[in-house]
Specification:
Elements (H helix, E strand, L loop, with lengths): L8 H7 L3 H12 L5 H12 L6 E2 H10 L6 H13 L3 E5 L5 E5 L8 E5 L5 E4 L2 H13 L10 E4 L2 H10 L1
Parallel strand pairs: 4-6
Antiparallel strand pairs: 1-3, 2-3, 4-5
This protein binds zinc ion (2 copies).
């Protein structure tokens, strides 16, 4: 991934308010077509409440509920393209669970606690993570595209259930 693949800071600010425009610009820039399906996927992602995350299955469900005729593989490929363009961030919660959210690392950096049992995701903010990541990157001559910290564990419910069973 070259730095050119990532939106500039000013473009990122427009992402949530006008994702369609940003998508059009980025796709054109990279030589991809702006399809109705890619725009609809972005619309679905925009409607996800703050702090929530959608899987490819979740996107598929929402689109088919809305009466869209779209194949799962089309969604899957589109999500990957949006990740490559720096519009979405992929959260690999486990091998079979991948979730997507808007990627806006510099304006609203947040991190994730993930339950390995039930897949619950909680977000938290901590400026020290970004400071640490940026310092490390600068020291090694990297420019930061994304800085995201993931903690894997058991949520209180699952930890409790595990104790009862064990
Ligand atoms: Zn998140
Ligand atoms: Zn859990």
């Amino acid at each position: 991934m070259t730095p050119n693949n990532s939106p500039h800071a000013s473009e990122r600010l427009e992402l949530k308010s006008n994702p369609g425009e940003v998508l059009r610009m980025l796709l054109n820039q990279e030589g991809f077509r702006v399809t109705e399906q890619r725009q609809k996927i972005l619309e679905v992602m925009r409607e996800v409440p703050e702090g929530d995350h959608l899987s490819a299955e979740g996107v598929y469900q929402k689109l088919t509920e809305n009466g869209e005729k779209i194949g799962f593989s089309t969604i899957y490929r589109a999500l990957h393209l949006l990740v490559d363009l720096g519009i979405l961030r992929e959260l690999a919660l486990s091998e079979e669970r991948k979730f997507y959210e808007f990627c806006d690392p510099l304006t609203e950096a947040h991190h994730h606690l993930i339950c390995a049992q039930c897949g619950t995701v909680q977000e938290f903010e901590d400026a020290t993570v970004l400071t640490l990541g940026s310092n490390e990157a600068i020291n090694r001559g990297f420019s930061v595209l994304d800085c995201q910290f993931t903690v894997h564990g058991l949520c209180p419910q699952c930890a409790k259930a595990g104790q009862v069973v064990g």
